[in-house]
Specification:
single chain; 863 residues; alpha/beta; Rossmann fold; 17-stranded mixed beta sheet; 29 helices; repeat; nucleotide-binding; ATP-binding
Length: 863
């Protein structure tokens, strides 16, 4: 579908429209851009309406034309921004001569814009897209789509269910227990996880215990009247009662029929919470102990429908032994399910790609059963599995299973979902990186009361709830740390991205001849980059491999990326900042993480749209003064540390110049080394949007200013403070008094930041704190946790506190504590944690188990 191109371009239109008055381009151009926005909006609505409709070839051609026109609009608007007057690209008083020369040249290029827009409008008029698409959509709306009503063919027999014994027994207990009220049970899992087979197996074995029973499949856009009629008919059939003519009020008839009956109803494949509520409202909720079982792909829907969390059953795939057994049964039917030793290695590699999904296992194994049992045949299927799941191929049933989930996504979610095709297989992606990329691409819609990053995190959570994205690692605060898409889901996303010309992956280009590359992802190096496509319209470039790249190739590539918004060079083998980057004036995201560069040029000031600058784990120790002109910066990440060390001793911050307070859009700033400029700490108080702040090597005069500055940061989630001068102890108040007023603080790390002998966490302070790290408090001999303080704390680290000999008083009140780490602490402190010690008694009620590490540290682990 073309809605991806339309959605992406609409994001850009909003940015351009808001800037046209500032650029003073005149009313005509503003009107023309407005017409394009109106057309795109109408196309977006029409395309979504057509999503579930079967289309003929003529309609598909017109949809392709919509996509091409949308991309043409994106190109024109980006070039409009590229050639805007220079003074609007930088927040400074520029060199007048240079500005005049720049504007004279670009005014020539801008002069061509109206004619280009007019050419696009002629295309729109000639193909007659608006009237044709709307008319066809309206004519088709009366009939339900055959695509939507298709049910995935059943290829897994009921008697082949493996690994579901425990959840099956629990479901049977819940289904058969006698209760006075009606109960709703949810079964949730991704497409192909075996939800329907699992429920049908239990349903068929226990439906006889109920007075009446019915199984109905709920389509994505069902008609409640038709569904009620279907339920009534099936309930009557279950009791062999004749089905009369359709009554005038089917809902009343259904309620009357079920009023005194104990019934069981399966609602298969529910998509939305409102749908479940709507259906339950037409059913009687008497005292007969009836049961409703809901199957869904959405975890949020499952939780909403079920009566309690205990009535939610999650099917997330088979464990390896059961997956292997099922695979061998299907693949080696002529060998009684025994895998030949010569094929075992490739069989396991293929099975690993299925990630425990029964439908995928059965489909792949069934295909293998028809092939010769040769290693080469197995290897060929392993290497071509992605192409086999595409429509009309041998494993198209897998893509057919995923397609409804994809179609049910909103345009915003769909765009973000396709973005996973950029990353290599089996690659876990950090939440922060993904969110910053989505924001930089312009995929995130502004929502009142939330930052763009918060909205983007909502998008990610919804994709996870829909079982399309899996969590690889959780943070202590309950947020996603890393995520990935399953292997076969990624293959599906890759070919959908190819259909949309959304991403081109090299060295296997998936862009048709003549099409311009929009996003470029290089996975395994590319020695024929020049022959791989037209890069003049590339918006994003990711280089995951540098094999075959020479410096001239790289520079030539950058030179062709004039419209680039995202450049990710993480782990690149470079030791100097590439000069060509500063000419990419539309750049919004730049990552040079894990490179060896040691200097950033002053010319970076040209990147006036830059939102993210990621220089973590580089050798940069000082940022140029002109970086303070980048007023769009939201994330400035610059520090280096020894990843093999557990404390902050090896952390190296970066020096910045006075004026940092002008970057008022900053949300993440770490790690800053104020050096001799004490004014910087005061300026931090202007950064009220900060959610993360890291400071290192503070001086004695910084303490008071820091306390005052952080009190303005009401959104602050993480604060890292390292190496404050010993003179801070001369302050009249403890630093915690300022920090405890931060309402959203989740993580607090302090190293060498206090020289008092007693640290008190006041009652009911730090209500949201999840992680606390205290290190090198040399004079500290007592920590007190008063009632209600740090009530959500999950991880506590005590390190190198030379005279602290006992656990914090009140630690037994930390009922959510999962991890207690003590490194390089005095022997007396460690000895008090032994089994019969006084301090051990204090933590006996904590939900963990205390263990001793080889290095002498103590660790409290989750049970």
């Amino acid at each position: 579908m073309a809605d991806i191109a339309v959605t992406v371009t609409l994001f850009l239109v909003e940015t351009v429209v808001s800037s046209l008055d500032l650029w003073n381009f005149g009313e005509n151009l503003r009107d023309e851009v407005g017409h394009l926005r109106t057309w795109l909006s109408s196309m977006q609505a029409s395309l979504r309406d057509m999503e579930w409709k079967e289309g003929n070839e003529s309609q598909k051609d017109r949809i392709q034309q919509v996509r091409d026109v949308a991309y043409d609009i994106e190109d024109v608007l980006d070039r409009l921004m590229l050639h805007a007057p220079r003074r609007f690209h930088r927040h400074e008083f520029p060199n007048r001569v240079r500005e005049s020369l720049h504007d004279a040249w670009h005014s020539i290029l801008l002069y061509e814009m109206p004619s280009k827009i007019e050419k696009i409008m002629r295309k729109i008029h000639i193909i007659g897209l608006i009237s044709v698409v709307v008319r066809e959509a309206a004519s088709a709306s009366a009939a339900a789509s055959s695509v939507e009503r298709q049910v995935t063919p059943q290829i897994l027999a009921d008697d082949e269910i493996l690994g579901f014994e425990e959840p099956r027994e629990k479901l049977i207990r819940q289904l058969t227990q006698l209760q006075s009220r009606r109960l709703t049970i949810s079964v949730v899992g991704p497409g192909g996880s075996g939800k329907t087979i699992f429920v049908r197996n239990v349903y068929e074995s226990k439906k006889g215990m109920f007075d009446s029973h019915a199984w109905v499949r709920v389509s994505r856009s069902f008609n409640i009247n038709e569904l009620v009629c279907s339920m009534l008919k099936k309930f009557r059939e279950s009791t062999r009662e004749p089905t009369p003519h359709q009554p005038a009020d089917t809902e009343s008839e259904l309620r009357n029929y079920l009023q005194r009956k104990r019934y069981v109803l399966v609602l298969d494949d529910i998509w939305r919470k409102d749908d479940c509520e709507c259906i339950k409202n037409v059913l009687p909720n008497g005292s007969s102990g009836s049961k409703i079982i809901v199957t869904t792909r959405n975890a949020d829907v499952a939780s909403f429908c079920a009566d309690s969390p205990d009535f939610v059953h999650s099917l997330n795939g088979l464990e390896w032994p059961n997956a292997w057994l099922l695979f061998c049964r299907k693949a080696f039917q002529n060998r009684n399910g025994e895998c030949p030793p010569v094929l075992e290695d490739w069989s396991q590699k293929i099975l690993k790609k299925c990630e425990g999904l029964p439908l995928a296992i059965v489909a792949v194994a069934g295909l293998l059963s028809k092939k010769q049992q040769l290693k080469n045949e197995w290897k060929k299927l392993h290497d071509s599995l992605g192409s086999e799941i595409r429509p009309h191929c041998n494993l198209s049933i897998i893509s057919e299973t995923l397609l409804p989930s994809y179609k049910d996504l909103s345009s915003n979610l769909r765009t973000c979902f396709l973005y996973f095709s950029i990353f290599p297989e089996d690659r876990s992606i950090k939440r922060g990186r993904l969110i910053r990329l989505w924001v930089a691409e312009g995929f995130v819609t502004t929502t009142r009361g939330k930052t763009l990053e918060e909205v983007a995190e909502d998008y990610l959570n919804e994709l996870i709830e829909r079982n399309l994205v899996h969590v690889s690692k959780w943070d202590f605060d309950g947020r996603v740390s890393c995520c990935r898409v399953p292997n076969l889901v990624r293959e599906f996303v890759v070919f959908k991205s190819e259909d949309e010309n959304f991403v081109s992956i090299l060295p296997e280009p998936n862009t048709s001849s003549g099409e311009k590359v929009r996003r470029l992802s290089i996975h395994d190096g590319c020695t024929t980059l020049a022959q791989s496509g037209d890069f003049s319209c590339v918006r994003s470039a990711f280089l995951f491999s540098w094999d075959g790249f020479s410096p001239p190739d790289f520079n030539n590539m950058l030179h062709s990326f004039c419209l680039l918004r995202v450049l990710d060079l993480e782990d690149a083998p470079i030791d100097k900042f590439p000069e060509q980057i500063v000419e990419l004036t539309l750049l919004r995201y730049l990552s040079l993480r894990h490179t060896k560069i040691d200097k950033v040029p002053n010319s970076i000031k040209k990147l006036s749209f830059l939102e993210t600058l990621d220089l973590k784990q580089t050798n940069v120790t000082k940022l140029p003064e002109r970086i303070l002109l980048l007023r769009s910066l939201r994330h400035l990440l610059v520090y280096r540390s020894d990843v093999n060390n557990y404390d902050f001793d090896s952390v190296h911050g970066v020096r910045v110049s006075p004026g940092i307070g002008d970057l008022t859009n900053l949300q993440k700033l770490s790690l800053v080394k104020p050096d001799k400029h004490t004014k910087i700490i005061k300026e931090l108080g202007a950064l009220t949007q900060l959610t993360k702040l890291g400071l290192i090597d503070l001086k004695k005069e910084d303490g008071k200013d820091l306390c005052e500055s952080v009190q303005n940061m009401k959104r602050l989630l993480t604060l890292d403070v390292s190496s404050i001068s010993k003179e801070w102890s001369r302050l009249q108040r403890c630093p915690l008094e300022a920090l405890e007023q931060l309402p959203n603080l989740v993580e607090l790390q302090m190293v060498d930041a206090f020289t008092g002998d007693k640290l008190v966490f006041e009652a009911w302070s730090f209500k949201k704190l999840k992680i606390l790290h205290i290190q090198q408090f040399d004079r500290l001999n007592m920590v007190v946790i008063q009632q209600g303080a740090m009530s959500e704390l999950q991880k506590l680290t005590l390190c190198e506190c030379k005279i602290l000999k006992m656990l914090p008083l009140g630690i037994d009140s930390l009922t959510h504590l999962k991890e207690l780490l003590a490194y390089d602490m005095p022997n007396e402190f460690i000895s008090r944690l032994q089994k019969t010690s006084e301090d051990r008694v204090m933590i006996r009620t904590l939900p963990g188990q205390l263990t001793s590490n080889k290095d002498g540290s103590m660790e409290l682990l989750i049970m």
